[in-house]
Amino acid sequence: MKHFDVIVIGGGHAGAEAAHASARLGASTALITMSRDGIGVMSCNPAIGGLGKGHLVREIDAMDGVMGRVADKAGIQFRLLNRRKGPAVQGPRAQADRAIYRREMLSETEQRANLEIIEGEVTDFIVKKGSVAGAILSDGMEISAAAVVLTTGTFLRGVIHIGDRARSGGRMGDRASVDLANRIDSFDLPLGRLKTGTPPRLDGRTIDWEKLESQPGDAEPVLFSFLSEATSASQISCGITHTNEKTHDIIRNNLTRSAMYGGHIDGVGPRYCPSIEDKVVRFADKTSHQVFLEPEGADDHTIYPNGISTSLPEEVQLEYVRSMVGLERVEIIQPGYAIEYDYVDPRALDLTLSVRSVPGLFLAGQINGTTGYEEAAAQGLVAGLNAGLLAQGKESITFSRSESYIGVMIDDLTTRGVTEPYRMFTSRAEFRLSLRADNADQRLTPIAIALGVAGTKRIERFQAKMSKIDDAMAILTKDAYASKAIEAAGIKVSQDGSKRTGFELLAFPDVTFEHLININPELEIIEPEIRRQVERDALYAHYIVRQKRDIDLLRKDEAHIIPTEFDYNSIDGLSNELKSKLSISRPGNLSQAARIDGMTPSALTLLLSHLKRDS
Ligand code: FAD
């Protein structure tokens, strides 16, 4: 029997990132997936990043993960979303060439040391003394490991729906994972059903592009990876069309034939990514919705119409797409469909994404009730790292809400569970002024270096950047200038008579580094990238000092670890409702307990006193 330190099951976005993370740690890792060609496949939208999601990609990259670098190579249109708003809520996004993304992800995976790709379907686990200790493939091959990361996406008992037709499938063109789902039943985990959908793919050669408004990318692309310098793929524009009253009438008249509306699907869908049927029903007063026509690749005539995912019958899909301007003679290459699948209530997991009741088993990605490539990859990173650390007999790593969006997501999932597919938004992060996409490296790369998962190039780049920032900060904080000198340099700030350092002056939104050079020519030597970074740091410095108190409180609560087996029923005075909620969620620390629905300050004090007594 072959043996690895870690087995990762599934080569989607969670699986690829998990396998790379474990291998970067030095753990021998097997990535077992149904098909080698499926590594890096984007099941739905050919795009990476966006609001909140772009932050996750930057954080994965800061930990030396792969998604950001691959997306930069595959990016065919880059846009920084919320460009006019503050840096804290700006999100880098790129439309990706599907084929290049897949090719580059496979190539990265094949080249990674300590990582072996094995093609096959896992149908069973090896379980020893109650712990998962390996995987069994459909051809009978057995592979043992100290830890297993399961990242099977939408494949567990997946059912594809188009109109009133339903068939088993993991996604279009792939078989579902049914044997493994049956095996998972034996672990007695809390399971549920979720659904998601995708639009029909259109043939770009049958679209009248000249009738459409065009949307180009940013002139100066903002890339994902702190290591990338330029994009290599050729850049494209998207077309924009709109649904209209006729489109809505066609959809309304056929609602009962939609899988989602005709009562064929029980699972809950993503509220923030509604199907066109949902939009027409929920926003009945709107007579039009925007549809972005996004090419799936620079040399590919397949077009992804963003905004019209559907589970209506194929002929209705053709009728409604043809009702839109520019699409009057369009042909559909692949119909839109909905998919329903099993997920595990993520409250069954701890902050390392390990299943509390099944030692050795970690879960990451869509299987945990999330939606999106970035959410999946970020979980993969955490599960892969912890599986590797477990195999090496080392202490686990967790991410705090105060230091990363990764921490926010995992805390949300494991504390609150999900009622619909979970996706990341900047509004989910209470410390978003400090958790910016631009400073993800400053927040997380030191952790990656300490863990030993950052490569040489990453370490050198990061250290060089930090030393340049330190140099700039030394000059910027050395002298404080009087109002007269500030005014003489043409800098307009409120005059309250106080002296201000260069860094303090940069906190004023209208003051740039270039203004400060008038006052201190020494700053001329600071290069543009460092100037922009210091400007962003200065803009939020004031708020971050104020946030620090809340962050310190959170950290203090996080330090009160609650043992996995803690008996909540033994706390007299705690309501039965809270006893039950805490027993289901099993928060890992006091901070997580505080965020459980219905938790009160007095219940927390009670819990804390019991924790102190038992420690
Ligand atoms: P996946 O990318 O699904 O990868 C799972 C992998 O596991 C596959 O490689 C598969 O081959 C492998 N696998 C499964 N079972 C086994 C087994 N037994 N043995 C070996 N290998 C196995 N996201 C959005 O953000 N917005 C959307 O609108 C959206 N719409 C979607 C619509 C559809 C129809 C689908 C299918 C997905 C959609 N997604 C959407 C979700 C997005 O594709 C996923 O969130 C993301 O791909 C999840 O990544 P993952 O790694 O968890 O799983």
Automatic annotation (TrEMBL):
Q: Which SUPFAM superfamilies match?
A: FAD/NAD(P)-binding domain
Q: Which domain of life is it from?
A: Bacteria
Location(s), subcellular: Cytoplasm
- The residues that hold FAD are G10, G11, G12, H13, A14, G15, V122, S177, Q366
User: Which cofactors, if any, are listed as required?
Assistant: FAD
Where is NAD(+) annotated to bind? 269-283
Q: Which UniProt keywords apply?
A: Cytoplasm, FAD, Flavoprotein, NAD, tRNA processing
Domain named tRNA uridine 5-carboxymethylaminomethyl modification enzyme C-terminal subdomain: residues: 538-609
List the Pfam families hit by this protein, alphabetically: GIDA (PF01134), GIDA_C_1st (PF21680), SAM_GIDA_C (PF13932)
Q: Output the NCBIfam families linked to this UniProt entry.
A: mnmG_gidA
Which function does this protein serve? NAD-binding protein involved in the addition of a carboxymethylaminomethyl (cmnm) group at the wobble position (U34) of certain tRNAs, forming tRNA-cmnm(5)s(2)U34.
Q: How does it assemble?
A: Homodimer. Heterotetramer of two MnmE and two MnmG subunits.
Please state which protein family the record places this protein in: Belongs to the MnmG family.
- What this protein is called in its record is tRNA uridine 5-carboxymethylaminomethyl modification enzyme MnmG
The organism's lineage is: Bacteria, Pseudomonadati, Pseudomonadota, Alphaproteobacteria, Rhodobacterales
In the UniProt record, the gene name given for this protein reads mnmG
